[in-house]
Design a protein that fits this description.
Chain lengths: 48, 384
């Protein structure tokens, strides 16, 4: 289950909002979504 | 493959055997010191050394060579550069150079309804600017400060990872640390830097339902943060426990345990191994710890080793309960005798990793010669 917050965008949500074609999704995901995940990790670090 | 690289892999395999609940060749040694301890040991000034990653590289290398642990025995995660850029209130370097964690508050009692609705949003909008003065400014300046902080953190964490891998391979020890990520029990997260130790204690009495709701609200954040793409039984998640021993039985059962149990169950379902630091004395909560999923590593600070082994030794991996205070005050022989006593209780049957009850923080906390003597003894003695 993807995390749900106004400030976090899962990859399926990103694809839908930005009209990414499914055939491009797999190529783009490692480059784009990894930054969302790293930012989440940094913010958790700042809280602990 | 070099001899030392092969040795490093063999040592790592001993840890993995334990995480698989199999009998290793001998008891693995996972003894650590804080980076401040290692800096002092290497003869550097703690205030200055933490700003210089070349010195940190040298310190991690020498500690790995000298301390005879099976892991790279020190690591740096609290960077003064990061906290200076952010103008942090929650991590502040003291006059001795040690980075202190003052009791801070970033969530007001009246904030609970908004926080509980979307905690990640609330953290970004309101908690971070309250903890970090550098973010309490105009949106433009905040964005620039945040970018500098993120870049600093990312670069320095990468460097520390490189130093760890290099030291492990050079000295034939495991690069595996206490965990590849860190999360907190939901109650601890709400208490620690959000409401503060004193604030949460008052909230339980005045608005307990809001506290319980907050713990449920932050649980998904902890489940997400605790399971990285490369998390598994060997790449484990570290969970330091704080507030449990300070709660009475009723409050523990009502506020602390339910979401902590859900966190552990949820991570276990994802195949994530957990290294849990059981801070303070949890002996009165042993019935609860028995309910945790199988294969958790429980690193106990205080407690009765015989009681712990009897109650948890078949289902969980036990660690800790060797008193660091003895390393400060005892002779080499007294320290070795104590290691033998602890090992004779906890090692039989496996599911055991040798560690102290806590990390020595500064050089005054433990004589280096005692650390080395104990680790050398465990290597020789605790063979299965």
């Amino acid at each position: 289950m993807d995390y749900n917050s106004e400030y976090y965008t899962s990859w399926p949500e990103y694809m839908e909002k930005n009209e990414i074609k499914p055939e491009h999704g797999d190529i783009m995901a490692p480059a784009i979504q990894s930054q969302e995940e790293l930012m989440f990790g940094f913010i958790m670090f700042l809280l602990m | 493959m070099s001899d030392m690289k092969q040795k490093s892999q063999e040592i790592t395999q001993m840890f993995n055997d334990v995480y698989d609940m199999k009998m290793p060749k001998r008891v693995p040694i996972s003894t650590w010191t804080d980076i401040a301890y290692a800096i002092e040991y290497c003869g550097f000034d703690v205030r200055e050394a933490q700003w210089n990653m070349d010195i940190i590289d040298e310190v991690m290398d020498k500690a790995s060579a000298d301390f005879k642990s099976d892991v790279v025995p020190t690591v740096m995660i609290r960077f003064p550069q990061l906290y200076e850029i952010l103008k942090a209130k929650n991590f502040v370097m003291g006059s001795d150079g040690f980075i202190q964690h003052p009791d801070v508050k970033s969530l007001e009692p009246e904030d609970y309804p908004e926080f509980n609705k979307d905690p990640y949003k609330f953290v970004n909008e309101k908690v971070l600017p309250r903890l970090y003065k550098g973010l309490d400014t105009s949106p433009e300046k905040r964005a620039m400060t945040f970018a500098k902080a993120y870049k600093t953190w990312s670069d320095l964490m990468g460097q520390v990872g490189t130093f760890t891998a290099k030291a492990a391979e050079k000295h034939g020890i495991s690069p595996g640390g206490i965990g590849i990520t860190l999360v907190e029990a939901p109650f601890d997260l709400v208490a620690d830097q959000l409401r503060s130790f004193t604030g949460i204690t008052i909230d339980i009495k005045r608005q307990g339902a809001m506290v319980a709701e907050a713990c449920e609200a932050v649980l998904p954040m902890m489940l997400k943060g605790g399971a990285l793409p490369n998390s598994n039984r060997y790449n484990r998640t570290f969970i330091p426990l704080h507030m449990g021993p300070f709660l009475n039985a009723k409050d523990f059962e009502k506020y602390y345990w339910p979401t902590f149990k859900k966190l552990c169950d949820g991570l276990a379902e994802k195949g994530v191994g957990m290294n849990i630091f059981v801070e303070q004395d949890w002996m009165r909560h042993m019935d609860y710890l028995q309910e945790l999923p199988e294969g958790c590593l429980l690193w106990f600070e205080f407690g009765d080793p015989k009681f712990v082994k009897e109650r948890l030794g078949r289902k969980q991996i036990i660690s800790g309960m060797y008193p660091v205070t003895l390393l400060r005050t005892g002779t080499k022989q007294q320290c070795i005798d104590k290691a033998k006593e602890v090992i004779d209780i906890l090692a039989p049957g496996g599911n055991y990793i040798f560690n102290y009850d806590k990390d020595p923080l500064v050089l005054a906390d433990a004589k280096p010669e005692n650390i080395i003597a104990v680790n050398e003894f465990v290597r020789e003695y605790a063979v299965y």
